[in-house]
Amino acid sequence: MRKKIVAGNWKMNILPSKTNELINLLMSANTDKIDVVYCTPFVDLHTAISSTKNTNIKIGAQNAHFEDKGAYTGEISFDMLNDIGISYCIIGHSERRTYFNDTDECINKKLIKAFDKNITPILCVGENLDLRNAGTYKDFIKNQLVSDLKTISKEKIASMVIAYEPIWAIGTGLAATSDQAEEICSFIRSCIKELYDADTAENIRIQYGGSVNGSNAKELFSKPNIDGGLIGGASLKEDFLKIVEAAL
Ligand code: 13P
């Protein structure tokens, strides 16, 4: 039985001076049976770590650099994240791929480093509307998985999380239907089976992300291959607690 995982991706939205307020609002998230993670901006991480200290809520970052240290002005390493007690890191979000040129090669390096530094990656994959309309989205997602996971062992990937985030559903209010999301989460599992083995595929956790809210979460999470969600807009408000409840 896979443990469900619901993660909030706060993106570039919360001022450090407002972090405590949001954490307090979401403090009652039920973590008895599922993993709950808040992926905050870098400058909010310290506050988020200390204000969730006595809870089971985990804190994650939204990106990191694959080098450990050095002359990389403006970057943050996985070593640094590990040093302040970060457990998760989103890697390869479509916004990073689109606006910051995170290529599959770079995402692969980031994944390797995250495993090295004991940070659980949440790897995002997903197609844009053109690929969906062209009907080539499965090939595209499989290529992303093959490139992003290159040379990574099955022992390592067992602990990771993969998030299926169709770009056309992100921030649009147009979530994939539960059948569309299930189709691809199940397809991702079959790719993992092909790349690794049946056990690894059975155990890896696969989330859906894209316009998830308190009203559609239950239906999405009831699907056999959807093990929770990666939540953007709704992770910044009380609705997030309903999404967590939907995963219980
Ligand atoms: P929304 O939930 O705002 O659509 O964002 C999804 C997302 O990009 C999470 O990483």
What does this 3D model show about the protein?
There is one protein chain. By secondary structure, the chain is an alpha/beta fold. The protein has a single domain (5-246), classed as TIM Barrel (Alpha-Beta Barrel), CATH 3.20.20. It has 12 helices and 8 strands. The chain has helices at 16-26, 45-51, 78-83, 94-99, 104-116, 129-134, 137-148, 154-157, 178-195, 198-203, 217-221, 239-247; strands at 5-9, 35-39, 58-61, 88-91, 120-125, 161-164, 205-209, 228-231. Strand 2 (35-39), helix 2 (45-51) and strand 3 form a beta-alpha-beta unit. The longest helix is centred in the last third of the chain and has 18 residues, at 178-195. The protein binds 1,3-dihydroxyacetonephosphate.
Task: Provide a concise account of the structure shown.
This protein is of the alpha/beta class. It is 42% helix and 15% strand.
